[in-house]
Amino acid sequence: MSLVAYMADNAGRLLFLTQQHIELVLISVAISAVVGIGLALLTQSSPRLRHGLLSLTGTLLTIPSFALFALMIPLLGLGVAPTIAALAVYGVFPILRNTVTGIEGVDPAIVEAARGLGMSAGRRMRTVVLPLAWPVILNGIRTATIMLVATAAIGAVVRGPGLGELIFRGLERIGGANALEEVLSGVIGVMLVALVLDLLFIVIAKITALRGLNV
Amino acid sequence: MSERPTPSPDAMIFLDGVSKRYPGQEKAAVSELSMEIKRGEFVVLVGPSGCGKTTTLRMINRLVEPTQGRIFIDGKDVTHADVDRLRRGIGYVIQQIGLLPHLTIADNIALVPKMLGVKKSERRQRAEELLEMVGLDPATYAGRYPRQLSGGQQQRVGVARALAADPPVMLMDEPFGAVDPIARKKLQMEFLRLQGRIHKTIVMVTHDIDEALRLGDRIAIFDPGSRLAQFDTPLAILSNPADDFVRDFVGSGAPVRRLSLLKVSDVIASSASDAPGTLNAIPVDAGETVHRALELVLTARAEGIEVCVPGGGSRYLDLQALLTAAAQPTKVLS
């Protein structure tokens, strides 16, 4: 049976798993974004704590994903919860790092002028710093998303949802009927999801681009 | 404890013994400085870098919090007032301008009115008025973004933004420092003309003594030890420098520079010569500067000037008498 025929036969299931995969990544990235941006804002007045957090979240990224998923089992059992938790942990670093870089990259003269005009700290952050840092922050979210699309496939080891199931099941019975086709459709699916989400971010970047910056 | 001084009624800004000491630094950035700036006065703080002039300026709107002393604005002690509200009532212009690049020129100008809750249509109208005031056509510039403007144009917008809520006080930190020399002189002159209309109380920092002499009603010269070496009118500083530092700082051209600040009316009283007759004199208004009078004499190849004095009649000064009179510093103090 050819790959194309396999995919056509299993279209319903493939689509379902793809959709699951996308949802899984988007939910995890959303959590990572809230945590990453939140940590960057909370550590605004304490650069040492901030750089400590950057090291810590960077270190978490070096834990092999297979191991991290497995480590989640005693805490959260099997299924969706441990998968999302592990993915969210991975996603924090690129978002935190880019948020910090973005905020630090805002021209101090602009912030100083805003302060001199009597703009409160909260308002300065909301209307000056975050909008100007946004393109860099968004890029961090994009990096995290692409990274998580690939990592999410490993989530199948804890019975996580998504396309990883195809890959792991296929590999377990490799040599069997349609095993290779199953693995390949999983891999292709992951690649397509990555591509589509990447395009989505390009569109978001275009829509949210600030006027006046590229003139 | 002795009675603490209070500002006089015509003082707009009053610094009472303010000091700024940064932790870990032995020497205070500003130490025990007291200064009174009158309503509508244009005061320039000048001195070498590190002399505390910028720190002093930034203590007025408390971008730098004084470690000691009190600050009064318009008779009110604002040393512990709400900073954001305080700053909204004080115009602030910096060298780097700091326009928000993602807002249009009109929105940049309307920032403070917006924070003060002014309605959108009124904000828009105010922004257009101010653009007009600083010499930029509202129809062309209101909708543009800062990066579409030249440095000089951006600086005008910076001034318009500082004026948006019509604050009585303006603080300017080297406002013309980043524009090229030709544009700078033009901006300075335009700004003087604007000030002639709006009569704000202005405190400006510069390291350029020429700019200080050109713009200030009074000049505060700080020495490298952060001491206020002299605080007086440009003419008085050129005529009677308080010490060697001020003399050095003002530079060697002081006697010639004085000529642009002295008025003919300042010198005619001290001149002995009022002999008319054979002198080939050209008429000069008493309000002209001595510099201008000399220019007129030299251009006309005349020998002296004829000045109408109040109460009828006129006085004559030959070139020598004019220069002798202009060289007498004592006259200025009367």
Automatic annotation (TrEMBL), chain A:
Describe its membrane topology.
Answer: Multi-pass membrane protein
- Using the record's annotation, list all stretches that form the ABC transmembrane type-1 domain: 18-201
How is this protein annotated for GO cellular component? Answer: plasma membrane
GO biological process annotation, one example = glycine betaine transport
Q: What is this protein called?
A: ABC transporter permease
Q: What PANTHER family has UniProt attached to this entry?
A: GLYCINE BETAINE/L-PROLINE TRANSPORT SYSTEM PERMEASE PROTEIN PROW, OSMOPROTECTANT IMPORT PERMEASE PROTEIN OSMW
Keywords of this entry: Membrane, Transmembrane, Transmembrane helix, Transport
Q: Where are the transmembrane segments?
A: 20-41, 79-96, 132-158, 183-205
**One Pfam match, by short name?**
BPD_transp_1
Keyword Transmembrane recorded:
yes
From TrEMBL, chain B:
- Which one of the record's GO molecular function terms can you name? ATP binding
Q: What is its EC number?
A: 7.6.2.9
Indicate the segments forming the ABC transporter domain, all copies: 13-250
Q: Which residues form a coiled coil?
A: none
GO CC terms in record: membrane
Q: Which InterPro entries match?
A: AAA+_ATPase (IPR003593), ABC_transporter-like_ATP-bd (IPR003439), ABC_transporter-like_CS (IPR017871), Gly-betaine_transp_ATP-bd (IPR005892), P-loop_NTPase (IPR027417)
Tell me one GO biological process term.
glycine betaine transport
| A Pfam family annotated for this UniProt entry | ABC_tran
Q: Which domain of life is it from?
A: Bacteria
Which keywords fit this entry according to its UniProt record? ATP-binding, Nucleotide-binding, Repeat, Transport
**Similarity comment: family membership:** Belongs to the ABC transporter superfamily.
Cross-referenced NCBIfam families: proV (TIGR01186)
What's the protein here called? ABC-type quaternary amine transporter
Q: What is the lineage of its organism?
A: Bacteria, Bacillati, Actinomycetota, Actinomycetes, Micromonosporales
